[in-house]
Specification:
The chain is an alpha+beta fold. Helices cover 30% and strands 11% of the residues.
């Protein structure tokens, strides 16, 4: 008998794998296409604003794209992850905040950090 992360009991490892496979198919079928894409342009995987790794600088083209995105959304700042940094850091005069510090064991087990957001 095997238990999965949802607490469900399965008769065999094969049964567990089949249930997991069916759950993935169901989730994927309901997911908007742009979220399922794994390419560089997907909003989930785009590193455009994070590749400067722990530095305040970002290339001019990326800065212009960021400002355009923020204006289009009526936002002042963007918070991004998926590219591990040594510490939480910002760029483009505080318009972008990179918060992935690799706190999970699988990504380095670094000390967690917190970005506190306050309304002025």
């Amino acid at each position: 008998v095997t238990f999965d992360n949802f607490g469900d009991c399965h008769r065999s490892e094969e049964d567990l794998k089949e249930v997991a496979k069916q759950r993935c198919k169901h989730i994927k079928a309901d997911m908007p296409r742009f979220l399922d894409e794994c390419g560089y342009d997907s909003p989930l995987w785009n590193h455009e604003f994070s590749d400067s790794y722990d530095g305040p600088t970002i290339c001019m083209g990326s800065a212009a794209m960021l400002i355009h995105c923020l204006c289009s959304l009526g936002a002042k700042r963007m918070v991004v992850g998926h590219v591990v940094q040594d510490r939480i850091n910002g760029g483009v005069r505080g318009r972008i905040w990179r918060i992935d510090v690799g706190a999970s064991n699988g990504m380095g087990g670094n000390a967690p950090e917190v970005l506190e957001v306050r309304k002025r």
